[in-house]
Write a structure and sequence with these properties.
By secondary structure, the chain is mainly α. The longest helix has 74 residues, at 189-262. Strand 1 (101-108) and strand 2 (111-118) form a beta hairpin. It folds into 3 domains: 1-45, no CATH class; 52-131, Arc Repressor Mutant, subunit A (Orthogonal Bundle), CATH 1.10.10; 153-241. The chain has 8 helices and 2 strands; from the N terminus they run H-H-H-H-E-E-H-H-H-H. Helix 2 (52-61) crosses helix 5 (120-131). Strands 1-2 form a two-stranded antiparallel sheet. The termini are far apart.
Length: 271
């Protein structure tokens, strides 16, 4: 049986056990997790938040140029929502075309700035989007993907786990300082607790990685000892056979020596 078939069987058995324990509770709909047609399934990847929503949110607070908006995405919101520079300007163009923002040009020396402002229609659209349920959380974590596929090379998995732990500890420290600064500055408590949530989640992930890394190291050692036992047993058996063979050889040589000493002399020949 192939290794993939073994994994699929293990996954199906785990899912069946879950279904027996919780009958009638549907698991996640979507594409199958295991190639063998397992019942355990994940939802399809939820769509990302439309970048036009945070843009309207920023413009609701103040007018801004495209460059200003790029800078705003580096604020605390950047820790839980990433946007590429190339997506901001097409979104602004679409918002202007839909009448959700206005555009005016301002001369600044030899350059012309494009300044965007939200309209009444844009504010209403923003409030409608704000009340809509958020998409379910879906984590895009490259390190976790690499750890998953390092099952045959656990040392590499441990390296990724250690690197991720260090990154999370650094990030949580930055967020903790940001929370303290927001408190001193009297920032919105709603925004502050979102940063606090990110800080708590990141710090908790770092602590869990410490625990899981230690657990993985123990399991690796157990498996190595288990693999080495048959080899050690075979080596011990071979050494015992060699020792018995050497003992038997010496015993035979000893008996032969005694026989030679005890052998009577024959008649003396004379010529």
């Amino acid at each position: 049986m192939h290794e993939g078939s073994n994994r699929s069987a293990v996954g199906s058995a785990a899912v069946n056990a879950i279904r027996r324990k919780y009958p009638g509770i549907p698991l996640f709909p979507g594409a199958p997790l295991f190639a063998g047609g397992s019942a355990l399934q994940f939802e399809q990847t939820p769509p990302r938040t439309d970048v036009k929503f945070p843009i309207l949110g920023f413009l609701k607070e103040a007018e801004a140029t495209g460059y200003d908006l790029k800078q705003r995405f580096q604020d605390p919101v950047g820790f839980f929502y990433r946007v590429s520079d190339g997506s901001i300007y097409p979104a602004l163009k679409k918002l202007a075309g839909d009448g959700l923002v206005t555009l005016r040009r301002e001369r600044q020396g030899r350059r012309t700035r494009k300044v965007y402002a939200i309209t009444a229609k844009g504010r209403e659209h923003f409030r409608r989007m704000l009340r809509e349920p958020a998409q379910p959380l879906f984590v895009f974590d490259e390190s976790q993907v690499k750890i998953y596929f390092a099952d045959q090379e656990p040392e590499i998995a441990l390296e990724h786990m250690e690197r991720s732990r260090r990154d999370d500890e650094t990030r949580s420290a930055i967020l903790a300082r940001m929370v303290a600064e927001m408190r001193r500055a009297g920032a919105s408590p709603v925004r502050r607790i979102m940063v606090e949530l990110g800080c708590a989640i990141t710090a908790a992930k770092a602590r869990v990685l410490v625990k899981l890394s230690a657990q993985l190291k123990r399991e690796i050692q157990v498996k190595r000892r288990a693999r080495s036992r048959p080899k050690a047993a075979a080596l011990g058996e071979r050494l015992r056979r060699e020792k018995r063979s050497e003992t038997s050889r010496r015993f035979r040589a000893s008996r032969l020596g005694r026989k030679i000493k005890m052998r009577p002399y024959g008649p003396v020949r004379t010529y």
